[in-house]
């Protein structure tokens, strides 16, 4: 499982002109689910995202996580993170879990996140989403778990 996380001052997801998920200050996390991912790897990813220290402490050092900061978490499914891009000029999405299985696992990931953190919002799985974010820093990190 892969995640691209961004520290944001605000972020939202719109589908068909309706905002389906939004947060203020916090983390926007794009989640890529691969063939071998499980509920255990999903839980490990959420634990890592929630405890990853990307917020400044009083001295300006990256030392606080989103829970300590009191920020929101916006989770967006993103199969393109699983693309192989090392050869050719077209991405190969063969590493992504099939959509029906990935949707089930993504829903389980979201449910687990909601047990671990109060402020959780999501995009809409499989939809054409318009994601807006004010990236703070900018700070972006790619996280991986097995």
3D architecture notes:
- The chain is of the alpha/beta class.
- The protein has a single domain, classed as D-tyrosyl-tRNA(Tyr) deacylase (D-tyrosyl-trna(Tyr) Deacylase, Chain: A, 3-Layer(bba) Sandwich).
- Helices cover 24% and strands 38% of the residues.
- It has 3 helices and 8 strands; from the N terminus they run βββαββαβαββ.
- The strands form 2 sheets. Strands 1, 2, 3, 6, 7 and 8 form a 6-stranded mixed beta sheet that branches. Strands 4-5 form a two-stranded antiparallel sheet.
- Helix 1 crosses helix 3.
- The longest helix is centred in the C-terminal third of the chain and has 18 residues.
- The mean pLDDT is 97.
Which helices and strands appear, and what pairs or packs with what?
Layout: E1 2-15, E2 18-23, E3 26-32, H1 39-51, E4 55-56, E5 62-64, H2 66-69, E6 72-77, H3 99-116, E7 120-122, E8 130-144
Parallel strand pairs: 3-6, 6-7
Antiparallel strand pairs: 1-2, 1-3, 1-8, 4-5
């Amino acid at each position: 499982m892969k995640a691209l996380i961004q520290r944001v001052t605000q972020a939202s997801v719109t589908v068909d002109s309706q905002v389906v998920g939004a947060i203020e200050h916090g983390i926007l996390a794009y989640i890529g689910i691969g063939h071998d991912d499980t509920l255990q790897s999903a839980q490990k990813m959420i634990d890592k995202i929630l405890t990853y220290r990307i917020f400044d402490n009083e001295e300006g050092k990256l030392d606080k996580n989103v829970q300590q900061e009191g920020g929101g978490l916006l989770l967006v499914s993103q199969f393109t993170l699983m693309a192989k891009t090392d050869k050719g000029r077209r991405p190969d999405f063969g590493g992504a879990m099939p959509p029906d299985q990935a949707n089930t696992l993504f829903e389980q990931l979201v449910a687990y996140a909601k047990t671990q953190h109060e402020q959780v919002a999501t995009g809409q799985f499989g939809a054409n989403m318009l994601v807006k974010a004010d990236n703070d820093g900018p700070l972006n990190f790619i996280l991986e778990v097995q």
